Amino acid sequence: FFLARQEAPQDGYPERYRPSLSLALERARGAGLEVGLHASFGARDRPGAIEEEARALGGELQGLRHHYLRSDPSRLAAELRAAGLRYDSSVGWPSRPGLRAGTPYPYRLWDAERGEPGGWELPLAVMDATLSEERYLGLDAGAAFEAAVEALEPVAEHGGAVAILWHPPQHHPRLSNGFDRVYRRLLAWIDERGGWAGSAAETLDRWQARRR
After folding, report:
1. What's the pLDDT score for residue 211?
2. What is the structure's pLDDT at 126?
3. pLDDT given at position 107
4. Which of these, 139, 120, 122, 142, lies nearest to 131 by C-alpha position?
5. 19-42 burial, b if ≥16 CB within 10 A, otherwise e?
6. What are the distances in angstroms from CA 17 to CA 31, 40, 41, 132, 201?
7. Gap between the Cα atoms of 89 and 43, Å rounded
8. Contact in structure between 149 and 182 (CB atoms under 8 Å)
9. Which pTM value belongs to this model?
10. Which of 123, 18, 79, 15 is nearest to 3 (CA)?
11. Residues of the chain below pLDDT 70
């Protein structure tokens, strides 16, 4: 997920990010990785902003995640439709793991403008920043793994499909305070439970195929 606009302080450091963006996008797409839109901090506050930011990234995008999870669920379906996006993965709590909408399954967002189901929501169940020592819960790596597993147990029990969010610094062996290993342990735990892990679009593909 890449930022296309950085206007608020919460969007980071554009003087460092912007010069690297084109090459990062090229390398990600060249490696066959899914590219999605990381909507800017203020994107939810202005109608049409998601469409503009998606167009600025170029290429074929399927998905969206709002910065700081600042989505407006009542407008998400219309925003996805206008931007030509298939899914969102922003409906979760920044301050706690778990299923904010109360379901371990992907679901269709309601498009209030059209009065019909719209794009998909891939629920966000676990985020590294929620667990980490520097942010909300202040957990070390061991406790973070246990909290993440607790949040994912209902997903495994009911055969659901959700998103796990791990930011790039939390994959770094020196910068992540062990959270790089937490991520790998979670992937192993999913595998041991008979689950599958992949990109957001791949996960949604498998979910829709299974439903059919």
Report:
1. 81
2. 98
3. 97
4. 139
5. eebeeebeeeeeeeebbbbbbbbe
6. 20, 13, 15, 23, 25
7. 15
8. no
9. 0.94
10. 18
11. none
